[in-house]
Amino acid sequence: MEKYYHSVRLLGERCIGCVSCARHCPTEAIRIRGGKARITESRCIDCGECIRYCPNHAKTAVTDSLDDLKIYRYNIALAAPSLYAQFDKNIPVAAILAGLQRLGFNKVAEVARGAEIATAALREHLRTPGIKRPVISSACPAAVRLMLVKFPELIEHLSPIDAPVEIAARIARREAAKTLGIRPESIGVWFITPCPAKMTAVLEPIGVMQSELTGTISMISIYGELLKEIPRDTVPADSRLASAEGVGWALAGGEATGLGDAKVLVAHGIRNVSNIFEQVALGKLNDVDFIECLSCAGGCIGGPLTAINRFVSENSLKQRLKAMRDRGEQTPAEPVADAEIALALHEGRTIEPRPALKLDNDIRVAMQKIEQIDETLKRLPGLDCGSCGSPTCRALAEDIVQGTASETDCVFRLREMVRDLAEEMVNLSTMLPPSLNREAVGKDPVGQIRSERLLPDDKEKDKRG
Amino acid sequence: MPEEPGLILEFPLEHYRFEIAGEASSKIKQVVRQLGVNAQTARRISVCAYEAELNAIIHAYGGFMRVRVLPDRTELEVTDAGPGIPDIEAAMREGFSTAPDNIREMGFGAGMGLPNMARSADEFEIRSSPENGTWIRMLVRH
User: Fold this and answer.
1) Which residues of B touch A (CB under 8 A)?
2) Which of A114, A188, A240, B65 could in theory staple to A72 by disulfide, Cβ–Cβ 3.0 to 4.6 A?
3) Interatomic CA distance for residues B71 and A47, integer angstroms
4) Are A101 and A244 in contact (CB under 8 A)?
5) What domains can you pick out in chain A, each with its CATH number?
6) What is the pTM of this model?
7) B50–A282: do the CB atoms touch at under 8 Å?
């Protein structure tokens, strides 16, 4: 079994074995076993839905911490536009960046700059003749992993353009290494992340050998400290700030905004992403140029590691964007250079599907298993209650056939079995040994009750003719 | 000749029951993926099933789909007792459609059904008459 790294983890002591996470997992990766949630690594896409739905906060995302900055000579923080959305529209971006720097970074760079470059690269890519349409965004790592697990047939639709955070990291690392004259490896580049999938993307990147990032720090973990550090007086920005086109990427539809008159569709929320992938696979969206798909409802501002309710943050970011547009900051002040566009493309990346659904390596055995699953499923109540620890009756049937669960795990089946057993016991209790069975005198010496029990009804009828 | 062992999946398709449209094809796709059939082949099988499913639901007053999955191939057979296709050659052309307006307004009936099936299947056979409705057989090699 191949090992996959995941940033979504379980805090065992907090898990009470309820099935909230298992039922909300879009890839059915979670089972409750031994009273605790277990994640099947090959199926987990790090979307963080389980973190969102766990009532006991037993699901968490492993990210780095500010302590990890000590390891590097020079540290750069990458601030996503979703971070700006955590603050009131009247707090200037320059102040947020300055506050972040005070937490211990040598420099802060905007991911929105990477987003501007990605937009320009995407515009150019969509003009390329002969590409497989619709092009599907590769910006959201959870959406991409959903594709690898559930829709590997769509891999050729994936956009070849790197996520804005990777582009921003690449530029920041190169610039710092050049200005300071130090090796790029001695620079720590940290993304302040709204989601666990970005953490996984750093440690187990898809299609590329290595991520440009050193690590990620959860947005919610530094939010309190950051609030205190944000200067109340005006601070000058130390470089040109990104435009609304880049900052808008934090909202669903933001990526598609800069694509001019291309035919675009936007899907946000992991189940909607799954549905749109299904329609692409059926060939129903061949006339669409580009599909933006984001695992979190609302876009990155809805990430499980954000601090502020997504509707509140959506409102404040929209107002911030409007103010930027009113100031004439809709598009980048300087057009994105060709050299920058080249930084956004990753040539020769190979993306492998994940064979997470296959029941057996031998197709004949797999066929028998499908039949067994169907037979088992017929005996289950179909309530999808999850009490057995599998998210649906169908998933339990699969687990039973795969040998990881038993039919008695179903409380309803167990009850039926107990009832059958009880009936059997009542029947047995009515049987008397021949020495005490006076009513049977003169009849069949073996005893009627017993012979009836041994013979199935239909055979008995046959005998009677 | 006795049939080779295979998985049989059967789906009754009811006329105008749009709420079930897509269920058969997604079930078939799930099964072949679980069998380890590669993703692109599974995609072609599900396109064949989906278009056949919709045709039966929209045009044919309902019908029946029988899918047989064998280790090396999937066979799909769709029968209906509908009005038949008067001009199969025309119906096989992309964009040709006899779907009524109310169906087109729902986004169906773009005239891609039969061409899509023919393109996605390795073997495609169709017979149709006003008396016996339409019979389609498709084969996709794994």
Assistant:
1) 5-7, 22, 25-26, 30-31, 33-37, 39-40, 42-43, 46-47, 50, 69, 71, 112, 116, 142
2) A188
3) 35
4) no
5) 1-61 (3.30.70.20), 66-344 (no CATH), 360-412 (1.10.15.40), 413-464 (no CATH)
6) 0.86
7) yes
